[in-house]
Task: structure prediction
Amino acid sequence: MPTHEEKVARIAGELKEYKSTEPVSLKKKSVSHQVPKPQNKKYSDRKIDISDLNEIISINPEEKICIAEPGVTFIELVSAALKHNLVPMTVPEHKTITIGGAVAGCSIESMSYKYGGFHDSCIEYEVITAKGDVIICSPEKDNLLFQMLHGTFGTLGIISRLKFKLIPAEKFVKMTYEKYSNLEDYKNAIWKHFENKDVDFIDGIIHSPTEYVLSVGNFVSSAPYTSSYDWTKIYFVSTKNRKEDYLKTVDYFFRYDKGLTSAHPKSFIGRLLLGKFMSSTRTLQVAEKFHQIIPDNKIPITIDLFIPFSRITKFMEWYQEDFNHFPLWCVPYRKMRDYEWISSSFLNSTKDELFLDIAIYGMKKKDGKNYYRILEEQLIKLGALKTLISNNFYSEEEFWTFWNKENYEEIKKRTDPDNIFRGLYEKTCKASMGLGR
Ligand SMILES: Cc1cc2nc3c(=O)[nH]c(=O)nc-3n(C[C@H](O)[C@H](O)[C@H](O)COP(=O)(O)OP(=O)(O)OC[C@H]3O[C@@H](n4cnc5c(N)ncnc54)[C@H](O)[C@@H]3O)c2cc1C
Result:
């Protein structure tokens, strides 16, 4: 087995030798959690193989620090950390999301109301530039590079090693489902927990405009029973029917792994026969393999919208009128700092520390409408963000009113002067839909 240093030297050497300005993309071991885009230019790119960067290098239980390679998946990380009664501070809900992908493409979950995204728990990255240089960056050393690796989709370099914090965990999670019949009561409940930081986990399902569930979780050392949602039962449905529940900690983190609000098959018989074998990973693998023949209009809408808490009522009023698709996943997210990748005009326009991630997962496209663009237009009006994992129709001018062009270009000219990783706008808004290079 090659050492970490040998793996990095191989990748850096390959990039040093690469004299072309044609774009390259990454070959990873684990499937990509981006919304499948059949026309994505990445399929014909030359590949930089990082598939052997997938090991946990160390876990220091005293310091509660882990050092790992970017291809480590969250199920591998959680399983290893739990042996020391520790867990990461943010665990995206799908088993095969990788830690490198979570930093480069953003990540959220039910601890985000306290700790932000996975990036916010990171304290150092090793990065390989397009020219094959290897740089160590942290908040103390090369802060702008460190911060800009978050949310820039690998367009500034390859993260080859991450150092991040862990927190203490218990063996089980006790769930309590708080039910509300209107948005204002729901918002008040979220705000109270946000102010008091009194529970370990918060997310929720908005089942309909009159059924709001806040799923509040706490670590516990013992449980009278445990439920699991990896076969016949669907987790998000349970939040509607139950008052409380107990899950093993690992099952809690991956409770949505079979699909968030769009788990298939839906019927009991279908799940009895196929439920064990269907998972988000399997669906994405199939979509990746057959990307050339999947009609774009058959790929359901999957999008995370980041709405400043003070604007959520306005957004939901509009949403009900124009979309009215339920259930929605709702994840409170604490903005941990004025993120360097967000434009200062956006940061100045909202003083909210709390955002709600409203996730529309599995909505069918109909009537030939471009729902992604309709949402973008509303977000522009409202002053709200979205993740770039789906189809993006922003004009370049609109795009840079949200993302920070100045900071981006400052790092880009250092780490990828010939633009072989593509620019952020180019990669997420154009190439992903088959346009440009
Ligand atoms: C169906 C679905 C469900 C999802 N559910 C959740 C969820 O529950 N919680 C959540 O937080 N997020 C969720 N996401 C979003 C997901 O976390 C992000 O899309 C994340 O970026 C995916 O990570 P990945 O490991 O699959 O990386 P990939 O999709 O492979 O990569 C993401 C981007 O990062 C780049 N990249 C990957 N590795 C590196 C590296 N080592 N160095 C530099 N760049 C790199 C890639 O080129 C790509 O542009 C979901 C996405 C989908 C499509």
About this structure: The pocket of flavin-adenine dinucleotide is lined by residues 26, 28, 30, 32-35, 50, 70, 92-94, 97-98, 100-102, 104-105, 107-109, 153-154, 158-159, 256, 280, 302, 389 (CB under 6 Å). The radius of gyration is 21 Å. The chain has 16 helices and 16 strands. Residues 4-169+413-433 form a domain with the Uridine Diphospho-n-acetylenolpyruvylglucosamine Reductase; domain 3 fold (CATH 3.30.465.10).
